[in-house]
Automatic annotation (TrEMBL):
Protein name stated in the entry: Uncharacterized protein with HEPN domain
Keyword set includes Zinc-finger: no
Lineage: Bacteria, Pseudomonadati, Pseudomonadota, Alphaproteobacteria, Hyphomicrobiales
PANTHER family documented for this protein: RNASE MJ1380-RELATED (PTHR34139:SF1), UPF0331 PROTEIN MJ0127 (PTHR34139)
Superkingdom, natural source: Bacteria
GO CC annotations on file: toxin-antitoxin complex
Keywords tagged on the record: Hydrolase, Nuclease, Nucleotide-binding, Phosphoprotein, Toxin-antitoxin system
Keyword Nucleotide-binding: yes
Residue ranges of coiled coil: none
One term of GO molecular function: nucleotide binding
Organism: Methylorubrum rhodinum
């Protein structure tokens, strides 16, 4: 298995994207970001990476951490790839500012399984 496909590497990719999104949106309002092409595309791309990395995690690892709410994460990636025209700015804002910060401690806990 190449290093990029190892679960711990994918988990680190997820963590990097979450931290990047949180940093980029910290102190900003939805109104400041809405309509800003670069912010909106950056958040969408980061969420897409999170989704793809989550999808490729071993099922048993995801099952040991059900509080990750994996299926919605995977589904949003499918929407971004195949039905991007259905994505609303408000939905991406909620994912970035509500759902991903809640996912972060789950990812950190999962990484401890590999650091031991």
């Amino acid at each position: 298995m190449t290093s990029a496909k190892r679960p711990e590497v994918r988990l680190r990719h997820i963590l990097e994207q979450i931290d990047g999104i949180v940093t980029a949106t910290r102190g900003r309002s939805f109104e400041e970001i809405q309509g800003n092409f670069l912010y909106e595309r950056a958040v969408e791309r980061a969420v897409q990476i999170v989704s793809e990395a989550a999808k490729e995690l071993p099922a048993d690892l995801r099952e040991r951490h059900p509080d990750g709410h994996w299926q919605p994460i995977i589904r949003i990636g499918n929407l971004l790839r195949h039905e991007y025209y259905r994505i609303r700015s408000r939905d991406m804002w909620e994912i970035a500012t509500v759902h991903l910060p809640v996912l972060r401690p789950v990812i950190v806990a999962m990484l401890t399984e590999f650091d031991s």
